[in-house]
Amino acid sequence: MTDIIPCGNEEVDRQFGGGIPFPTLMLIEGDHGTGKSALCAQFMKGLLASDKRVLCVTENTVKEYIENMKSITFNFSTAFLRNRLTIMPLHMYGVQWNKEQSSFLLPVIGRYIGNSFKEHNCVVIDSLSLLTVFSDASRILEFFTQCKYLVARGMSIILTIHPEDIPPDLRMRVKGGVDVYLKAWLH
Fold first, then answer.
1. 182: which strand partners?
2. What is the pTM (predicted TM-score) of this model?
3. What is the distance between the terminal CA atoms of the chain, rounded to a whole angstrom?
4. Is the sign of the CA dihedral 95, 137, 146, 4 positive or negative?
5. pLDDT of amino acid 98
């Protein structure tokens, strides 16, 4: 059964028919600076207000993520301190990633979110680009298949990506396989 969770922004909720579907697999695509992270934060705000536990995988450190979200009016400090929001940074101090190591990031993150099913109702990956840049087609498709499985079990997964970070031959298959596809752009 799908629930509708208001995200707390009247205009966004109206556009979505009252809120975002839960569970769902959502892909938000757009260039740098188009508002993907802000839209994710709006959805996270609604999920947290609905007593969902959220895992956020980000390219930022925990401190950078919380500060960046504060700068666009989302204060996730309380949710983080109350252990309702887990922030997992992809960048680690002192680690020098190479192409071979980076190619394993997507499957590792996929297993991690699969194992976190009992602790989290929702996973936000902002951005998937770092994980797909050196992944081959089979790893990308396997990751999305795993996401669909987790959604079928009751988890929501919200992903952001830059337009060129999934190979062109997979792009339509990936877009067609998600429940909600949003294109972010500046106008």
1. 28
2. 0.92
3. 36
4. positive
5. 66
As given in the structure block, the two tokens for residue 83 are 């252990």
Please name which of 151, 155, 31 lies closest in space to residue 177, comparing C-alpha atoms.
151
Which pLDDT tens digit goes with each residue over 70-115? 999 899 999 999 999 999 998 766 666 667 777 788 888 999 999 9
Distance CA 136, CA 24 (A): 25
Distance, CA of 177 to CA of 174 (rounded, Å): 5
DSSP string, 101-161: HHTTHHHHHHHHHHHTTTT-SEEEEE-THHHHTT--HHHHHHHHHHHHHHHHTT-EEEEEE
| Cα–Cα–Cα angle for 148, 174, 57, rounded to 5 degrees | 65
Q: In angstroms, what CA-CA distances link 6 with 25, 45, 70, 77?
A: 16, 9, 20, 21
Contact (CB, 8 A) for 117 and 150: yes
